From TrEMBL:
Its EC number is 3.1.26.3. The lineage of its organism: Eukaryota, Fungi, Dikarya, Ascomycota, Pezizomycotina. Keywords: Hydrolase. It comes from the Eukaryota. GO terms for molecular function: ribonuclease III activity. This is Contig An03c0030, genomic contig. The keyword Hydrolase applies. Gene3D superfamilies: Ribonuclease III domain. It is an enzyme of class 3 (hydrolase). GO terms for biological process: RNA processing. It comes from Aspergillus niger (strain ATCC MYA-4892 / CBS 513.88 / FGSC A1513). SMART domains: RIBOc.
């Protein structure tokens, strides 16, 4: 049976990969825990990173919409970017490209395999965790989006 890094070690690796140092490392660990994983004393949510993913999805969409507005792009173009870059398939691939799939803690029944939907939720949760950890700073999230390739196209 393969050994996996401890949650704190995964959180530390996450920080290195995304270029953001968490004030509260527990947020980073929460972002890496998929729904259905029971980690008493570490993560006190039964839905894993789902709440953070909800926040992260909203933050990603907001930043892309703001950037579209600032770039003076029309609604159709902005909606096209939102459909692509805020879509689960694109987000999941962005996470895999950075190696985040090796950090996500999944239900033991998944045998270490991170499904696309779980990967996308984890990436959204990471975005949400950065936003929450930085007291709602959009400017703290922007470099993380750039690292993930989820920022507004140049």
């Amino acid at each position: 049976m393969p050994s996996f890094p401890a949650p704190a070690e995964r959180a530390q690796t996450l920080q290195s990969l995304i270029g953001y140092i968490f004030n509260d490392p527990n947020r980073a660990m929460e972002a890496l825990v998929a729904a259905g994983v029971h980690m008493p004393g570490l993560i006190n949510r039964t839905d894993g990173h789902k709440q953070l993913a909800l926040v992260g999805d909203a933050v990603l969409r907001m930043i892309l919409a703001l950037d579209g507005y600032e770039a003076r792009k029309g609604r159709e173009f902005t909606n096209s970017i939102l459909s692509t870059k805020a879509g689960n398939t694109y987000i999941a691939q962005a996470g895999r490209n950075l190696g985040l799939d090796k950090l996500v803690i999944v239900n033991p029944a998944q045998a270490g395999m991170v499904a696309d939907k779980v990967m996308a939720s984890a990436v959204e949760a990471i975005i949400g965790a950065v936003f929450m950890d930085s007291d709602g700073s959009v400017e703290s999230v922007r470099p993380v989006l750039a690292t993930l390739g989820l920022d507004w196209p140049a």
